[in-house]
Design a protein that fits this description.
Layout: E1 16-20, H1 37-51, E2 55-59, H2 76-86, E3 90-93, H3 101-108, E4 115-118, H4 132-140, E5 144-147, H5 158-166, E6 170-172, H6 174-188, E7 194-198, H7 207-216, E8 219-222, H8 227-233, H9 248-258, E9 262-263, E10 267-271, E11 280-284, E12 292-296, H10 298-308, E13 313-317, H11 330-341, E14 345-348, H12 351-359, E15 368-369, H13 373-380, H14 386-389
Parallel strand pairs: 1-2, 1-5, 2-4, 3-4, 5-6, 7-8, 7-13, 8-9, 13-14, 14-15
Antiparallel strand pairs: 10-11, 10-12
The structure holds adenosine-5'-diphosphate (ADP) and magnesium ion.
The site of adenosine-5'-diphosphate has 21 residues, from strand 12 and helix 12.
Length: 394
């Protein structure tokens, strides 16, 4: 379990503080920000530093410019939006080499409480290879490093791991602190019963999650497209549903080992086409030839809800059906509504699961909605996240 220093554990007044944020926000073709959630998510750490008299230097990547100064992926729109959110000027250091003349000059002129934003860190080819030269340049700008970008914590890049090794102390911001608290406790010291809900499209992409969680949970609920490989392992027919034949044996083994810990759907909403408007039916057990499972059925929803009723901690990764199509979103939405009302610590991880819960308007009813798709998955897999590991221990 991580026990890292946080912004509140160190003196920040008068210090040049470099903060790795996750400003990887979606832009439309006019370079306008279409979803500002990640900017909003970064505000608590930034405001804390401003209020406590730090000189706040922000950095982030955006998209995949692959080491080139791609103008469409400039952080300039983020500087503008951030200025509005903070109600104060954010000086944008427009350097194609990120730590260039503009950045150096802007930092040299900073007063306590000022904010500077550097250009997209992935304009530099060294960034994703964690080459020390760029880490040194970043380190030269600051006295203290704060990592608040959970979304990239599973990667070892210059702007998180590289710079952490060169600037001491390197501490966690509020976002990362919250991710560690919720995901870490859920996996390592949960209030029980602990129930995990796994779904989504593929068993193959979730094997390590299944294995790690099976060791820890009291119950494991499996829904979504991955359930049909387990159906096949039980000897059921699956029609044209998603199926990973190479993983049927694996699923069998899991069922043999975990026995009654694993709950699988007992009925399925099926259709003949992968289409929201395709006529649907509900079947129990076998899925007939020519039909595919697109959501869990009503009996399964009731069974899963019963299994969740006494849970004290719930971790959810992977939708229960094709939630992008309204006619097959019911299973996912019903489970989300149930969790929203449950007297338990509820944690949502995974890009699509988070999208599903937000689509249902229930994001704020959960204890924690993880901001990092890949990073939260690796946390649930029990892996060490290099971006967090590199921070200074308490
Ligand atoms: P997450 O991003 O939360 O980890 P995944 O990426 O594993 O989740 O899976 C999400 C995808 O799984 C969604 O696009 C959803 O439509 C799909 N899915 C869920 N159930 C089914 C199903 N029965 N058939 C086909 N696709 C499904
Ligand atoms: Mg996904």
């Amino acid at each position: 379990m991580y026990n890292k220093l946080t912004v509140e554990d160190v003196e920040v007044k008068g210090k040049r503080v470099l903060v790795r944020c996750d400003f990887n926000v979606p832009l439309n073709d006019k370079q306008e920000i279409t979803d500002e959630n990640r900017i909003v998510g970064a505000l608590p750490t930034i405001n804390y530093l401003i209020e406590n008299g730090a000189k706040v230097i922000l950095c982030s990547h955006m998209g995949k410019p692959k080491g080139n100064p791609v103008p469409e992926l400039s952080l300039a729109p983020v500087a503008k939006r951030l200025s509005e959110k903070l109600g104060k000027e954010v000086v944008f250091a427009a350097d194609d080499n990120v730590v260039g003349e503009n950045a150096k000059k802007a930092v040299a002129e900073m007063k306590e409480g000022d904010v500077v934003l550097l250009e997209n860190t992935r304009y530099r080819a060294e960034e994703t290879k964690n080459v020390e030269e760029f880490s040194k340049e970043l380190a030269s700008l600051c006295d203290l490093f704060v990592n608040d970008a959970f979304g990239t914590a599973h990667r070892a890049h210059c702007s998180n791991v590289g710079v952490s090794a060169l600037v001491q102390p390197a501490v966690a911001g509020y976002l990362i602190e919250k991710e560690i608290k919720f995901l870490g406790n859920a996996v390592n010291a949960p209030e029980r019963p602990l129930v995990a809900i796994l779904g989504g499209s593929k068993v193959s992409s979730k094997i390590s999650v299944i294995e790690n969680l099976l060791k820890k949970v009291d119950k494991l609920i499996i829904g979504g497209g991955m359930a049909y490989t387990f159906f096949a392992a039980q000897g059921k027919t699956t029609g044209t549903s998603l199926l990973e034949p190479d993983f049927i044996d694996y699923a069998k083994k899991m069922l043999d080992n975990a026995g009654d810990k694993i709950l699988l759907p007992i009925d399925t909403v099926i259709a003949q086409k992968f289409d929201n408007d395709a006529p649907s039916e509900v079947v129990e057990g076998d899925i007939p030839e020519g039909w595919m499972g697109l959501d869990i059925g009503p009996k399964t929803i009731a069974m899963f809800k019963e299994a969740l009723a006494d849970a004290k901690t719930v971790v959810w990764n992977g939708p229960m059906g094709v939630f992008e199509m309204p006619n097959f979103a019911k299973g996912t939405n019903e489970i989300a509504s149930m969790l929203a009302e449950l007297d338990a610590t509820t944690i949502i991880g995974g890009g699509d699961s988070v999208a599903a819960v937000n689509q249902a308007g229930l994001g704020d009813k959960m204890s924690h909605v993880s901001t990092g798709g890949g990073a939260s998955m690796e946390f649930l897999e029990g892996k060490v996240l290099p971006g967090i590991d590199a921070l200074t221990d308490k």
